[in-house]
Specification:
Elements: H1 4-13, H2 20-28, H3 34-48, H4 51-55, H5 59-64, H6 69-92, H7 99-110, E1 117-123, E2 129-137, H8 147-156, E3 161-167, H9 177-192, E4 196-203, E5 208-210, H10 216-228
Parallel strand pairs: 3-4
Antiparallel strand pairs: 1-2, 1-3, 4-5
Helix pairs in contact: 2-3, 6-7, 8-9, 9-10
Length: about 230
């Protein structure tokens, strides 16, 4: 049961008014009561290290930590609602080269993964997302990412531009030499098919690296033009 005090506190300052343990306590109040609930919320934060770590936990893990099934469902529902909200917000408006907006959406999908995944967002002439798909999984290197598969998917959904996104499980989003070589190859492949690469975003631990923001996509496009001169 959510108390009037909690409701008023939220209205005054939003979620920023609460500690992580207090937020978990609110969730647990949906299914448990009293002092033990407060102790459980502090224990969960300590075990999971953060609110995001707790929300990223799966159902069995939460139950094994003593979380009531109803509260566990609520925690996971919040994550999925946030994911859908950010997805619809991203799809409903042009991309406009906003790397932050793409990060905000995909961070919820890719954070916490133990292996690398390579996702492509396919966009129409108005720069709206028409399709998203994970094309490659595992260690992302030049032998694992095939430009022809990327172009094939783009043609299938009539995309005119693409955004590449992959995660670094280490948490450091700085691109490797291999990441740069892959991106350059994909930019050149897209140019040959009269398509555009708008960005390649590497997602780390609550941070990201944008090839466009750093000017690398423009450099790769110029390299292609120089080859044709």
């Amino acid at each position: 049961m959510i108390t009037q005090e909690v409701l008023e506190k939220f209205e005054r300052g939003g979620l920023d008014s609460f500690l992580d343990s207090e937020i978990i306590d609110i969730f647990l109040s949906l299914s448990s009561k009293g002092k033990k609930r407060v102790e459980d919320s502090k224990k969960l934060i300590k075990e999971k290290e953060s609110l995001s770590g707790l929300i990223d936990s799966d159902y069995k893990d939460l139950v094994s930590c003593g979380v009531d099934p109803q509260a566990s469902f609520t925690l996971r529902l919040v994550k999925e609602i946030s994911r859908r909200y950010l997805r619809e917000k991203a799809i409903a408006k042009p991309y406009c080269r906003s790397s932050r907006e793409v990060f905000d959406y995909l961070f919820h999908c890719l954070r916490g993964l133990k292996k690398e995944v390579f996702m492509v967002l396919f966009l129409d002439p108005k720069n709206q997302i028409v399709k998203e798909k994970i094309l490659f999984e595992g260690t992302i290197d030049s032998s694992a990412v095939y430009p022809r598969e990327v172009i094939k998917e783009a043609l299938a959904c009539n995309a005119t531009s693409m955004i590449f996104v992959h995660n670094h499980p280490s948490g450091d989003p700085e691109p490797s030499l291999c990441d740069k070589e892959i991106t350059k190859g994909l930019v050149l492949a897209a140019q040959l098919m009269q398509m555009k690469v708008l960005d390649h975003i590497i997602i780390g631990n609550n941070c990201y690296f944008s090839f466009t923001d750093k000017g690398l996509i423009e450099d790769y496009n110029l390299s292609f033009l120089n080859l044709n001169i």
